[in-house]
Amino acid sequence: MNRRKFLAAAVALATPTIRAFNQSPNIVLINADDLGYGDVGCYGSRIRTPNIDRLASEGMRFTDFYATSSVCSPSRAALMTGRYPVRTGVAGVLQPFDTNGLPASETTVAQMLKTAGYRTMCVGKWHLGSRREFMPTNRGFDEYFGIPYSNDMWPLPLMRGTDVVEETANLESITVRYTEQAVSFIQRSKESPFFLYFAHTSPHIPLLASVKFRGGSELGAYGDVVEEMDWSVGEVLRALDENGLAENTLVLFTSDNGPWYQGSRGRFRGRKGETFEGGMRVPFLARLPGKIEPGSVCRAMATNMDFLPTLARASNAALPAQPLDGMDIWPLLSGEKTELERQAFLYFTLWHLQCARVGPWKLHLSRFNKNAWGPDPAGGSANLPLAKPELYNLENDPEETYDCSQRYPKVVADIRAMVEYMLPTLPEQVQSAWSDTMRRRVTFTPAGALPVEEKP
Description:
The protein has helices at 3-14, 50-58, 72-81, 85-88, 109-114, 174-188, 220-242, 277-280, 307-315, 330-333, 409-422, 428-438; strands at residues 26-32, 60-66, 119-124, 143-146, 158-160, 163-166, 194-199, 249-255, 284-287, 296-303, 345-349, 352-358, 361-371, 380-393, 441-443, 452-454. By secondary structure, it is of the alpha/beta class.
């Protein structure tokens, strides 16, 4: 993408257009927790996922879809707001006793859909603030049933609305109970358009499946919980069928980031917590009969920030006042287009901008590494600039194995210029972190020796 096209894409994002559907569809958005790109059958897994695979056969499968962060809270902030999580202030994982959360100044998908007459429910993991003012029922959801953060945190309450209904959630039965609540909401919401955000707490550790699924997978406890989640997807699809809602319901399935200790990253490099592809490229499936071509595959890049503007078009809801980073991907879902012009996609860890993707090109600019020369004798972790930026062509080399920066210096320069152009639009914390990182210069001594940091 040249500079003129880049600027045109930026203007298009700033002034999106919304065309109404003839009828506002119901929306079911299923978000798994730590599910890897290679953990679903239609993406090559040996884990049995026939119900999730059904969404692929009856709808569209994306090959280049990204969570906007490689960890929980920031990814969910991006999904809910259509904005980079650093813009929302949710740059890292929120803890149970944190007093902050997704700010009231941010508009969620649910709040936007409420203005278009939708009934809304959140089932499962929230993780955007556990104080009352940050909980789902204060962020556009009529109902909430779930755990307010990750299932390995403590204390671990199961909540309905803002009330605790179980002091310590029984994780062995949680998927079954989530599914019962989701099905009930569907049955009770037939008379008006509805939005169901079903955010599973699995397959995040600890891995605890119900008795029916325990030991059933050939891939151990991880496979068990994924297969139970697939059963849950099947129950949701069954409820849509039995209530005559399937033909007018947009079903979306994805994951909040790549796999952690267990799970498959597919063919990619890296895992949860990293800005290599394995940490952020995730499954994404979409089904809407009569609108999305069955069995279709989209190879264009898209992200979970794109949900909000896309659902604004589907529901004919007004967009929030805040500038968006996501874009309306309905032209991809409908098959009208196979590619969309868009700004560089930025990869963050906390406030640190580490990579940028433009088209098939991904440029790595900085990375966390052990600071062997720091005051911590054990060697603290620091975000360091790469001595030489690494460029990968993700179409030819999705594993990020062959650095081709020397062969394509102009591509490196163009992407670097786009990053520099976008930096002033990002929060001060990002700009400060970038300046601090770029002030460091790493010189590598002969093979086998430790790197030496040179500061101005």
